[in-house]
Sequence to fold (286 residues):
Amino acid sequence: MDLKQALDLLKKHGYKYTNKRELMMDIFLRESRYLSAREVLDQMQEDFPGLSFDTVYRNISIFEKLGIVEGTEWDGERRYRFHCNRDTHHHHIICTKCGRTREIRVCPMNAILGEPDNFEITGHKFEIYGICADCEGDHAPRH
Amino acid sequence: MDLKQALDLLKKHGYKYTNKRELMMDIFLRESRYLSAREVLDQMQEDFPGLSFDTVYRNISIFEKLGIVEGTEWDGERRYRFHCNRDTHHHHIICTKCGRTREIRVCPMNAILGEPDNFEITGHKFEIYGICADCEGDHAPRH
DNA sequence: ACCTTAATTGGATTGATTCCGTTTTGTAAA
DNA sequence: TTTACAAAACGGAATCAATCCAATTAAGGT
Ligand SMILES: [Mn+2]
Ligand SMILES: [Mn+2]
Ligand SMILES: [Zn+2]
Ligand SMILES: [Zn+2]
Fold:
């Protein structure tokens, strides 16, 4: 999934092309790590000083619905990253300092299938948290 | 782990015994499902009308630190339940309507061990979400 | 009973997220 | 290329969970 594919996805679902949306995707794409809404806003305001929080949240919500970004939450804040692979389902090891990830190819649900009764399964979450090599020590996280 | 053990844990760590703390544990114990701070407050105010949010949050935070309750988060709200078993590590299938759980005995970390390099692991989360038998359909969740 | 300190209160504050009326902009039709 | 209309963005207010704080109350040891 690249920028063009994502923009096509927007168009296919009747959303308009705007330079703000393109920049937002650009940011997610080049950072390729989990970002909070505030981090996205800060980066976007370098190009669009008056940009509103509402624009960030509205577009993130659209992006998430279309599968362009995927979200999670830690330290009481939601974070989002470019959906790294739309074909194969997998999970992540996440650095809680800088939001960078490593992939876990296995999904524990495969071992669970058939197990749960009396529950209509709607989703699952498997994440490993830690500190990446660049962030360990006292120094500020390198992005 | 029962009420007495939990109260002993408090005492052992130098916290005072109060009827509010006992009631709070009582509630977690008899509900044995995930509760939000607001739900705990509402139930406690039946006995202590003037009870403050701060008391709920402060005590939850102490309970979590001592391992008396365990917390998670969904729909943008933190929730807590009595720590169901202090000896064996396991995970849960959670009903996102009523907060009741079923146990998953396996932990996917066992299969991962040895895998991750360049990451100092600090924690992990494996949860399956769904709707329990009592909550499915249109009717209100039965607690 | 008294003293010291922790616990609780109640109200203010923070901070993330959502909401909303107004203005601007993208896009398709004329 | 203009025009028209709906969607997007703006800016600021509102919401809501969670935290903070100064003043009061209560627990537990002496
Ligand atoms: Mn990935
Ligand atoms: Mn359990
Ligand atoms: Zn890192
Ligand atoms: Zn349920």
